[in-house]
Amino acid sequence: MFDLIIRNATLPDGRTGQDIAVREGTIAAIEPGITADAGEVIDAGGLLVTPPFVDPHFHMDATLSLGLPRMNRSGTLLEGIALWGELRPTLTKEALIDRALRYCDLAISKGLLAVRSHVDVSDPRLVTAEALLEVRDLVAPYLQLQLVAFPQDGYYREPGITEALTRALDMGVEVVGGIPHFERTMEDGARSVEALCRIAADRGLRVDMHCDETDDPLSRHVETLAAQTVRFGLQGRVAGSHLTSMHSMDNYYVSKLLPLMAEAQMAAIPNPLINMMLQGRHDTYPKRRGLTRIPQMLEMGINVGLGQDCVMDPWYSMGTGDLLDVAHMAVHATQMGSIDDKRALFDAVTVNSARIMGLEGYGLEPGCHADMVILQATDPGEAIRLRPNRIKVIRRGKTIAETAPEVSTLMLDGRPGQVDPAAYAPKAAQ
C-alpha cells in the first residue's frame, strides 16, 4: 500500500508510461504498471513529471520592491545599486518578511521549491539577515531557502562590512558571498576573493560570488576565484555568478580560463534575464548580449545552473518567478536550439542547480524526496517552449499547489472546439 501513485508519467530522461509510487514522503518505486493500491492516485496522462525547479541565484530581500523609493529611470545596474542604497536604510523586518513570503507563494505556484537568495549585509543593522532567517524557517515545510551573506557594497569598500558579514554567518546564514569587481581596485577585489574563500574554508561553508558582472573583458576575478578554490580545498563548493565579462574576453584567454574553472570544479550561475537587460549598455551596434559562455562551459563539463536573480525590484521591473522563463531566454540568447541543447538548459533549472546548492534527496529516483511537478507539456524542450501550467506541485508526496490545464475554447465552424497548447508538440517530441 502506497500513499500516492502517479500513473502514466513521462520523465525528463524520455521514459514514458511510468508510474511513480510514494510512501512516507519518499519515492519508493518508478516503473511501468505498478499494481499496488494507494491512498491517492493521480493520472499524469502522459504529461511530463519533473523534479521541482531550483533557483540558485536570487535576491529575496529586494524582491517586489519595484518603485521604492522611486523607479530606475535609466534601467542600469548602477542606478539599481544606487536605488537600493537609498531604500536600504528604510527597510523594516516586517516589510521584508511580507514581500519575501508573497514571493514564496508565487514560487510555489510555479513549482519552484528551492531558492538560494543573496542577503545584503552592507547595512550593519542586518535587518535583511534577521528577516530572511525568519522567512527560511517559516517556509521550510514547503520551500528550501538557502541564504548567502552578500556584501552588496563590496567587502572592503565601506567600513564595518567585514564585521557585518561575519555576524551574519554567526546568525546562521550558510553561504559566503562577495562582489570583487565592485571593490575600489582590482587589487582589493583579488584580496576580497582570498579573504572570503578563507572564511568559507575555516567554517566549512559554500561560496557564491557575484563575479565580473560587467562588460569589461579585463575584469578577471573568476580566475582568482578558481585559484583560491583550489588553494583552500573548496572544490565542488564554489560558484561564480553572472560572469558576464567573459562575453567580451578574447578566445585565447577563455581557452585558459575554462580549464581552470573545470579543474577547480567550480559552478557557473548565469542569469539570462538580468544579464541581457543590464549588460551592453555602453554599446551602440553591434550590441553584446550580456550573457556568459554557457555552451562552452557545458562542453568543458562545468556545472551550469540558471538563476532568476530579480523579480520586480530596483534592477529588474519584470520577472514571474518561473524558471522556465529563464531557460526560454537562455535558448534564444545562446542559440542553443537543438533537442539536446534544450534538455541541457532544462537541467540547468533543475538538477544542475540542485547540485550547486547541495540539495539532499533531490531527484526522480527511488529513495529521493517525493517532490515533483506535473507540467502541461510532453518533454523538457516543450516545457521550455510553452512555459506551461503546473498541473500539480507536490512536496513530500502531498499536493501543495495546482493549476487547471490551459485549454482555449473555439467557436469556429468546421474547426475543433478546443485548443490544448501541449497538443502541438512535434512528433519527435511525442
From TrEMBL:
<dbReference type="GO" id="GO:0035888">
    <property type="term" value="F:isoguanine deaminase activity"/>
</dbReference>
<protein>
    <submittedName>
        <fullName>Cytosine deaminase</fullName>
    </submittedName>
</protein>
<dbReference type="InterPro" id="IPR052349">
    <property type="entry name" value="Metallo-hydrolase_Enzymes"/>
</dbReference>
<dbReference type="InterPro" id="IPR032466">
    <property type="entry name" value="Metal_Hydrolase"/>
</dbReference>
<dbReference type="GO" id="GO:0004131">
    <property type="term" value="F:cytosine deaminase activity"/>
</dbReference>
<dbReference type="InterPro" id="IPR011059">
    <property type="entry name" value="Metal-dep_hydrolase_composite"/>
</dbReference>
<dbReference type="GO" id="GO:0006209">
    <property type="term" value="P:cytosine catabolic process"/>
</dbReference>
<keyword id="KW-0378">Hydrolase</keyword>
<dbReference type="Pfam" id="PF07969">
    <property type="entry name" value="Amidohydro_3"/>
</dbReference>
<keyword id="KW-0479">Metal-binding</keyword>
<dbReference type="GO" id="GO:0046872">
    <property type="term" value="F:metal ion binding"/>
</dbReference>
<feature type="domain" description="Amidohydrolase 3">
    <location>
        <begin position="40"/>
        <end position="400"/>
    </location>
</feature>
<dbReference type="InterPro" id="IPR013108">
    <property type="entry name" value="Amidohydro_3"/>
</dbReference>
